[in-house]
Specification:
- With 479 residues, the chain is an alpha/beta fold.
- The protein has a domain of 96 residues: GMP Synthetase, Chain A, domain 3 (2-Layer Sandwich), CATH 3.30.300.
- It contains 14 helices and 26 strands.
- The strands form six sheets. The protein has a nine-stranded mixed sheet, sandwiched between helices. Strands 16, 17, 19, 20 and 21 form a five-stranded antiparallel sheet that branches. A four-stranded parallel sheet has the order 4-3-5-6.
- One of its GO terms (biological process) is fatty acid metabolic process.
């Protein structure tokens, strides 16, 4: 089975069900399966069938059509961010070794430095409209269909691939652990460059639900869709949720919130649940390499508000110390995961070993019930005079302080201590207030020694703070 396999069956049983609804168009499953088949057959009919197809387009029906069509054809789809510079596009296309890139005339100037062959969207769609809609041969489920790029918050991004099977196993989590089904109408307000939002759209189509897709995130427009359409599921990240909370965007009817991409402070989650008790809040921890790892249900969030949740139904977790031994509950170590959802490997790099266990060097512990608590990433750890400080732990405390909207904590060199923690804050507050807030919840050595205040903080496409840019700012004195 492949990620597009169910489309034909859905089209037969529910031909008039809306598959995708954008700001300007709607398409039924009957027409969706035809478009995907035509796109796949067009790709396979090219003089030299491309193995890797890059897509440089904003959120749109065309983006999803090309992505699904490439997957159905047996190609690897490579989303390219419209916000990247020409140099960044050239770099990603070279890393991905793309055979072809589809874009619109508006974005063609971003490809002037690249040697990858370009097909303009209008020409592409004209050719697809004349292609056959016959069904395609079966694809090996272990075949990769998607190439993404790690967020690069700690350094240069790396390309990775995912197989059909890995996402189909993830779809089972969406159905079983999040209870999302064909009956749901799912709002995707964020960029499809983020695997969180791309997955939300593709998994909904696999299950037979309706995808409502915004061209880009707008709090006001998201509010309008939530209150105008019968939205039952909203994919989001904490920064978006905060923006929606500030304008009172949520309707009176029940909506399931699926959040990931960054740490969601327990205080913010509780405030949202108290203000809109009809919302069902799901938060999950995962990575590009591991996919889903743990999730926190609405009930879990109330009982264990600072936990990253329990393992998904098909995931095993072990916490291991530096000697490779399994840690006891409450003991911090490196998080190892065994899962059928892990990635195929890095492009031109390592692949998972045969043991089935894998780590991305995140550190944490589990409690007696198996709930995971994340300390932070090992390679982001600040070593202050021999003492370990995890930036994520400090950021969680800072985000709980009044009037802090965003916070980033990074290590900067210090002649005496080796490294000190520096906090970069976006919010209407000051260092004195924040130090007092930190003293209530952190050991004294974990309290930042340098404080910088700014009007904005850089973010990755997945809504995480771009730490590498923050470090560069501090090094260059830009903040």
């Amino acid at each position: 089975m492949t990620i597009t396999h169910p489309y034909s069956a859905i089209a037969e049983t529910s031909p008039r069900r809306v598959a995708i609804h954008t700001e300007s168009e709607q398409i039924t499953y009957r027409d969706w399966v035809r478009l995907v088949s035509q796109t796949a057959n067009w790709l396979r009919s090219l003089p030299k069938m491309p193995n890797r197809v890059a897509i440089l387009l904003p959120n749109s029906l065309a983006f999803l059509q090309l992505f699904a069509g490439a997957a159905a054809a047996g190609c690897i789809a490579i989303p390219i961010d419209i916000r990247w510079s020409a140099a960044e596009c050239k770099d990603r296309l070279a890393i991905g070794n793309a055979d072809l890139v589809v874009t619109s005339a508006f974005f063609k100037n971003k490809l002037i430095e690249s040697k990858t062959p370009v097909v303009l969207l209008d020409h592409c769609m004209a050719a697809i409209s004349e292609a056959s809609a016959v069904s395609l041969p079966m694809i090996d489920p272990e075949h990769p269909f998607y190439m993404g790029f790690t967020s690069g918050s700690t350094g240069k991004p790396k390309a990775f691939t995912r197989s059909h099977r890995s996402w189909i196993e993830s779809f089972a989590c969406t159905e079983t652990d999040f209870s999302i089904s064909a009956d749901d109408t799912v709002l995707i307000p964020g960029t499809l460059m983020s695997s969180h939002f791309l997955y939300g759209a593709v998994s909904t189509l696999f299950l037979g639900g309706t995808v409502c897709l915004l061209k880009k995130f707008s709090p006001a427009q998201t509010k309008e869709w939530l209150n105008r359409e019968s939205i039952s599921v909203l994919y989001t990240v904490p920064t978006m949720t905060d923006a929606l909370t500030r304008i009172g965007a949520f309707p009176d009817c029940p909506v399931k919130i699926i959040s990931s991409g960054a740490d969601w402070p327990a205080e913010a989650k509780k405030k949202l649940a108290d203000t809109w008790p009809q919302l069902k809040l799901y938060d999950f921890y995962g990575t590009s390499e591991l996919s889903f790892v743990t999730y926190s249900s609405p009930e879990d969030s109330k009982r264990k508000p600072h936990s990253a949740g329990r393992p998904f139904h098909n995931v095993q977790i072990e916490i291991r110390n530096a000697a490779g031994e399994r840690c006891q509950p409450g003991e911090i170590g490196k998080i190892f995961v065994k899962s059928p959802m892990r990635f195929s490997g890095y492009v031109n790099g390592s692949a998972p070993d045969e043991s089935g266990w894998m780590t991305v060097d995140d550190m944490g512990c589990v409690d007696e019930e198996g709930f995971l608590y994340i300390s932070g990433r090992e390679n982001g750890m600040i070593v202050y005079g021999g003492l370990n400080i995890f930036p994520e732990e400090v950021e969680r405390v800072l985000l709980s302080c009044p009037e802090v909207e965003k916070a980033a904590v990074v290590g900067i060199p210090d002649e005496y201590w080796g490294e000190i923690a520096a906090a970069v804050i976006h919010g209407n507050t000051n260092a004195r207030k924040l130090k007092a807030c930190c003293k209530q919840k952190l050991a004294s050595y974990k309290i930042p020694k340098k404080w910088v205040f700014t009007d904005s903080l850089p973010e990755t496409s997945s809504g995480k703070i771009a730490r590498s840019i923050v470090k560069k700012w501090l090094k260059e004195g830009a903040v």
